Amino acid sequence: MTPRHSETEGTGPEEPVVVRDRRRVDPQTGEVRPPAAEETPAGEEPAQHAGPSLGDSVDEAVPAASDVEKQLSERTADLQRLQAEYANYRKRVDRDREAVVQGAKASVVGDLLPLLDDLQRAEQHGDLTGAFKAVADKLVSSLERSGLEAFGAEGEEFDPSVHEAVQHNTSPDVKGPTVTLVMRRGFRFGDRVLRAALVGVTDHEPGEAPAEPPVDGSVGGELPLDGSVDESGQQ
């Protein structure tokens, strides 16, 4: 007898087992709550999202950092070059501005040179006296403070760059080309020669060699070697 076998033969197909999760049912409203997150079936490990590994992230970060450093060095070099160009530009502008100012001053002073010549001639003739002389002295002092300098005096060494020779002489009293006559003074303003000096130049002329004294043939009272006899008849 197999009563268990007979019992199973009379039953129909087995119904599937359904597990109902009462935790998702709201006890107050009776509605099913939405799943907070995907539920992982029992016995299965949660799926891991694919992503870069630690080694891959380090490898990608190193080139990025090197690119940033390269760009930073390039920008720094550009900034330094721009700063140097600006400094040179400022120096050039200051130099050009100073040259323009000095040129303007030199032009004004150059127009006053004939007046200074007249004042010098008046002083040489004794006409520069009194209040006229005081005004002339103030004018000359102001021009000298601005940078005006007169040159060309007797006894100076001749310099063709600042002297214009209009007369030439020779003399044994000088050692080289020397200014011995000043016809018109020269003037310079700073490093610029406004007018060359008109001068007379004297060059050195070798003089005649002095005559040599006669040579006495006697030495220490002894007779001359040639055997000559003086007027007394002694040898």
UniProtKB/TrEMBL annotation:
Give one Pfam hit by family name.
GrpE
Where is this chain's protein located in or outside the cell? Cytoplasm
**Ranges of Low complexity compositional bias?**
34-45
Swiss-Prot/TrEMBL keywords: Chaperone, Cytoplasm, Stress response
What CDD domains does the record tag this protein with?
A: GrpE (cd00446)
Location of region: Disordered: 1-68, 201-235
Q: Give the signal sequence positions.
A: none
Q: Where is the composition biased (Basic and acidic residues)?
A: 17-26
Cited PANTHER family: GRPE PROTEIN, GRPE PROTEIN HOMOLOG, MITOCHONDRIAL
**NCBIfam families per the UniProt record, alphabetical:** PRK14164.1 (NF010761)
Assembly and interaction partners:
Homodimer.
Entry similarity comment: Belongs to the GrpE family.
This molecule's function is given as: Participates actively in the response to hyperosmotic and heat shock by preventing the aggregation of stress-denatured proteins, in association with DnaK and GrpE. It is the nucleotide exchange factor for DnaK and may function as a thermosensor. Unfolded proteins bind initially to DnaJ; upon interaction with the DnaJ-bound protein, DnaK hydrolyzes its bound ATP, resulting in the formation of a stable complex. GrpE releases ADP from DnaK; ATP binding to DnaK triggers the release of the substrate protein, thus completing the reaction cycle.
Its protein name is: Protein GrpE
Which organism is the protein's source?
A: Amycolatopsis silviterrae
